[in-house]
Amino acid sequence: MESRCENCIVRQFNSLRAMSKEELKEVSDSKVTKKYKKGETLFEEGEKLNGVFCVREGVSKMSKLSANGKDQIVKLATTGEVIGQRAVIVEEPTNLSAIAVNDMEVCFVPKEIIVNSMHKNPDFTLEVLRHMAHDLKEADDVIVNMSQKTVKQRIAEAFLYLKNNYGVDEEGYLSLTLSREDIANVVGTATESCIRIISEFKKKGYLKTSGKRIGIANEKELQDLIDGF
Amino acid sequence: MESRCENCIVRQFNSLRAMSKEELKEVSDSKVTKKYKKGETLFEEGEKLNGVFCVREGVSKMSKLSANGKDQIVKLATTGEVIGQRAVIVEEPTNLSAIAVNDMEVCFVPKEIIVNSMHKNPDFTLEVLRHMAHDLKEADDVIVNMSQKTVKQRIAEAFLYLKNNYGVDEEGYLSLTLSREDIANVVGTATESCIRIISEFKKKGYLKTSGKRIGIANEKELQDLIDGF
DNA sequence: TATAAAACATGACAATTGTCAGTTTTTTTA
DNA sequence: TAAAAAAACTGACAATTGTCATGTTTTATA
After folding, report:
1. Segment A60-91, tens digit of pLDDT
2. Among A139, B103, B107, B123, fewest CB within 10 Å belongs to which?
3. Which ipTM value was assigned to this complex?
4. A211: Cβ under 7 Å from strand C?
């Protein structure tokens, strides 16, 4: 039997926490839990979404194809986050693709439930608004980083981000392993440049690697580099 | 005597249009109309805002100081737009500075009025949410442009943006004149690089200039350049 | 309107980053 | 576990972009 949203811990971290008991029941009754394997697509840029996805487990990369054929990863969506909200609110096709970075479990909630609640429950709408306001600030920060920091700084920043948000395993390697190509697509550079800089960081003792796994060996030096020292 | 919000055309373009008559009256009674000369600061990054600003006339650049001391212009806010909303919603200091690009007239609305309406009027909240969702999409697009397009393409794009959004004067020059430095700060490049590329575009017949005024002489070529031909 | 200040412009050069063309290693799958 | 596929890596080189230094033009102001 499916688990009930009312008892879902994940909900504490997203806008669904502002829903009433009745609304939650509705969500719970209509939601569909889906599993995606690493690399599978939740949805693609340009698709019309008829609901939102609440991430229970795993990480999804949210990306946009650029004119030159490269994917730019705009953000990573993690446990607790609701994705697809933006498109549902403005009733437009989504501007981003969502692809599982590792195995995922997500709950799909039909848009009618969400839209309905937004018309009836101002607290819920306000909570959604707060989350979107937060996302917008983060997007502003990304814009500034993209244009004002070097590729080296952005890569260093990406690793600290991964450490702070997803932690490290018992051997000290980052728990969330992204391919070099994905990292390049996060910081907006060529895969080769990304690999080269990782090699350089390794030589300098800032990072350690084991296959595709990467660990931070000298956090302070990385931070100094980001800060421009 | 101050003009009434109820009759303000500007309101049609922003979230205030979802307000009830009573709410609008409240706004109207508590708002303060302010004028800013070109170059003056509406507010600075890190400030706490105790209200929002509704732009009646003129344009404001919304920027963020980066670690290397350069301002990155994240967006331009124009007639009809409400600025400072994000900060008021999340109850945080604002993450952006607002500086008048030309002479401005704005209405300052105390945050209590806004917050109050957001708790009581779901239509208003939803309308604010829609606007923020739109801003977020635009920010995503900027991120992709920043990381995947060349400086040359971004500058070309900036000029077409200025033409499409602010139009041209009778001589064919862009109605909104930004300094070369501002343009550089919009596209995220060095002022010298920006000037150089403008000169190049002029030589190639894509642009014409007269002092600091700039006009588009060959829109198609600019568009081709943006599209990567 | 003379003078100062700001903005615009250009050259020379160095640093950063991307592209292409491969090789090697790791991971996946039959 | 062998073969195939994908990912990681490296070198060489070119293109892009930033920096510094300096001169010119435009704009603002006393």
Report:
1. 999 999 888 899 999 999 999 999 999 999 99
2. B103
3. 0.94
4. yes
